[in-house]
Amino acid sequence: MDAILLQILNGLDKGSAYALIALGLTLIFGTLGVVNFAHGALFMIGAFCAVTLNKILTLSREIVDETRTDFLGNPLKVKVPYVEGWFGPELGAAIIDWSVPLAILFAIPVMIAIGYVMERGLIKHFYKRPHADQILVTFGLAIVLQEVIKYFYGANPIPTGAPDAFRGSFDFGVLLGFDPNVIIYPYWRLVYFVFAAIVIGAVFAFLQFTTFGMVVRAGMADRETVGLLGINIDRRFTIMFGIAAAVAGLAGVMYTPINSPNYHMGMDFLVLSFVVVVVGGMGSLPGAVAAGFLLGVLESFASYSPIKNFFETYLFLPSIDQIIIYLVAIIILLTRPRGLMGRKGVMED
Amino acid sequence: MFGLNSKDTRLLLIVAALCLFAPFLLNPFPEGSELAQFNAGYPDLMQRFVIFGIFAIGFNILFGLTGYLSFGHAAFLGVGSYSAVWMFKLLGYNVLPGIVLSVIVAGLFSLLIGFISLRRSGIYFSILTLAFAQMSFAMAYSVLTPITNGETGLQVYTDDPQFLMGANSPNVPHLFGLQMNATYKMELGAWLFQFNAGYYLCAIIMLVMFYLAVRIFRSPFGIMLRAVKTNQNRMNFTGLNSRPYTLAAFVISGMYAGLAGGLMASMDPLAGAERMQWTASGEVVLMTILGGAGTLIGPVLGAGFIKYFENIFSKINDSVLHGWFAFLPDGLEDFVVAILHPFVGKGWHLTLGILFMLVVIFLPGGLIEGGQRVARLFRRKKQTPDGKDPEHHPKPAPHVAE
User: Which of A35, A129, A148 comes nearest B123 by C-beta?
Assistant: First the structure.
């Protein structure tokens, strides 16, 4: 029982990332009808927003500390971040410590702006072009974004830590009445899951309970009619593109402490997120979220050693955890082509 | 000739002549001169031209004719490479068994992947092939290490069995004794021309493959594939089952990719998982589109174009740039070099990505369409100054299907 719970928990953080990226992909596909191969790059840019903010906050100047000396007897030069100079040492240190959560505030406007520019500058001209062209141009854009990041930040992963308060792990099992030291779970992964749940909830609430969201949903159902009613649906869809970019970016920001960001992290996630979208059903928002969590947990279960050994000994499938997601996608496609929660008739050919 | 009409025969002869005289054509600048870095007539690069030409021709049979955009063709190339190296390990360095096996294995593998992926069309198909290629890549890296040697890459070791290895057969890839790296160097004045056995083997194979592709393009089968691209629904409504045709096209193009992989391993007996990565798949898509998808000669041009500029751009560094712009005033020179710096050397992929976007946005028909546009511009100026089309030429078909 405890082992099962542990696997579920382990799958939640990756599942959250899949769900967030797949949600953005589905939003873009549902509103604009465009398959965005650059969505993984947006996730990656979000992660680098956190890196950038961390770099900005730790910009420092050298001052001479008269009270201390180095080993030659000269006064010691100390690097003091500007932030500590402005807000005092304690608050300054706290700000630097919390740079990843703070990057959320930084990333939202940046990502919305990037999404807006992308849609108006590039994607807009591809509505009437075939899907293959849309795929190709966003694929090219993904390469460009990736290489730009590589040029500025280098090819190596840049570790960016979580706040001290969330480092380390805690005994999750005790809370639920298990023996101590059975279910140990890192704090930050729980934070990530809760954060993802809040973002997903916010997106759904936005679509469900605001007038803007209502119009967007109407536009997703029948774009032309909404346009005929005198509503500028294109502008709203552009904003939705920005929101989808922001969701991907936020997923990236909060993922930095789990996995040090490098320039090609986006593509690795993108391929899996596509599989998630396919499994969930193209164009279905709840499907994307459910499939994201489902596949994350499934992947975690497949890496659980008894299950892994079972597959290896009886079914001759070594390392099932590496390919389980693809296998599930194949089975779903062969048996239920529209995905788990896809609407009938949407993209079924 | 060979069952081709006069136009296609001319095209085939032009390609054959280009292949035959490539060592001359690609080495226009004298050795040791300032411009010698723009020469491309050395064996390694020429081999890459024709091998990627084969890869792109094969990809074009799928994408150009049926409009199915596969993002996973590098997987077949990788599989071909692995099987060729295994033949070298088991049987010896004769390239023939390796090439044959690479085609067969890639064909079987593409049959499997095509059977599943072709159940869907459009975006789904692209996503599925991409996912399969990434899965193969991940498996080659980790699970299949006994077969693929994981991160190190597969290579031939001295203690491999090599059953057919004779006592005096060469210890490098060879075709019945003709070593692939044998190069005849000819010096003519200041010029140095290199004739490489491996290049000519690849070139002959590419010619045969090009001929095959022409035949496929002109055959009833090819017309059927075009019908799939134009309107698959309508084709299904007429009662034709289009899936066998698309599957056949997929397997043929997979076998081309496998052949390219096998040749690649024959020129340099190594195979690594990075050949299967999505960037490699994207590259062949770019080659085909840049040259002109659906045209015969386009993909070969695109492959040559990209491989040539990859080679040139990667070589340029800051000192070369400074040399070029030395005529500018100092401040301006540094500025221009600083602007160009991200795009050359290691930044070649950035240039590639920008090129990719520009081609898709402005020139969806590729270089061939660009050439035609320019030609039409001149012709129209001569005949009808007002730009109208008195002969009512048919409008060009959209270059990819939905």
Answer: A35
**Angstrom distance (rounded) from CA A83 to CA B3:** 78
CB-CB under 8 Å, B124 with A282: yes
Distance CA A90, CA A86 (A): 11
In whole angstroms, give the CA distance from residue B66 to residue B224: 9
**CA-to-CA distance for A62 and B259, rounded, in angstroms?**
61
pLDDT band at A303 (very low <50, low <70, confident <90, very high): confident
pLDDT at A45: 93
Q: Is A168 part of a structural domain of the chain? A: yes
Q: What is the mean pLDDT of the segment spanning B188-195?
A: 80
Name the average pLDDT for chain B: 84
Contact check, Cβ <8 Å, B360/A151: no
| Integer CA distances (angstroms), A236 to A3, A200, A226, B46, B330, in order | 46, 19, 11, 52, 50
In this structure, is the dihedral angle defined by the CA atoms of residues A46, A47, A52 and A57, taken in order, positive or negative? positive
A28 touches A246 (CB < 8 A): no
- Chain A hits for B285, CB-CB cut-off 8 Å, are 136, 139
Q: Which own/partner pairs from A170-174 qualify as long-range (CB within 8 Å, at least 24 positions apart)?
A: A172/A9, A173/A2, A173/A5
Numbers of helices and strands, H then E, in chain B? 16, 6
Chain A residue at shortest CA distance from B132: A326
DSSP label at residue A256: T
Output b/e per residue, B356-393; b: 16+ Cβ within 10 A: bbebbbebbbbbbbeeeeeeeeeeeeeeeeeeeeeeee
Q: Are A174 and A180 in contact (CB under 8 A)?
A: yes
Give the Cβ contact number of residue A36 at 10 Å: 29
pLDDT tens digit sequence for A267-285 = 878 888 888 888 888 778 8
Domain that holds residue A297: 2-335
Minimal C-alpha gap between B16 and chain A (Å): 32
Those of residues 65-104 in B touching chain A at CB distance below 8 A are: 67, 69, 71
Both tokens assigned to B336:
């221009």
* Residue B179 host element (H or E): strand B178-179
A133 located within any domain: yes
Tally the domains of chain A: 1
Q: Shortest Cα distance from A334 to chain B (angstroms)?
A: 8
| Residues from chain B contacting residue A278 (CB–CB below 8 Å) | 124, 127-128
And the tokens for A330? 């194949």
The topology under which CATH files domain B6-277 is ABC transporter involved in vitamin B12 uptake, BtuC (1.10.3470)
Integer angstrom CA distances of residue B131 from A39, A301, B253, B315: 16, 21, 18, 33
Which amino acid appears at position A45 of this protein? I
Is the CB of A271 less than 8 angstroms away from the CB of B278? yes
* Token pair belonging to A93: 């240190």
Q: pLDDT for A284-299, tens place per residue?
A: 888 999 999 999 988 8
Distances in whole angstroms, Cα of residue A102 to Cα of each of A254, B141, B254: 10, 37, 49
pLDDT beyond 80 at B388: no
DSSP states of A65-84: EEEEE-TTSSEEEEEEEHHH
Residue spans of the domains in chain B: they are 6-277
A2 CB within 8 Å of a chain B CB: no
Contact A19/A192 with Cβ under 8 angstroms? Answer: no
CA distance A169 to chain B (A): 29
**Quick check: is A346 in a domain?**
no
Secondary structure of residue B180 in the 3-state scheme:
coil
Asked if residue A118 belongs to a domain, the reply is yes
How many angstroms separate the CA atoms of A204 and A183, rounded? 32
Task: Report helix, strand or coil for A54.
Answer: helix
| Domain CATH code at residue A221 | 1.10.3470
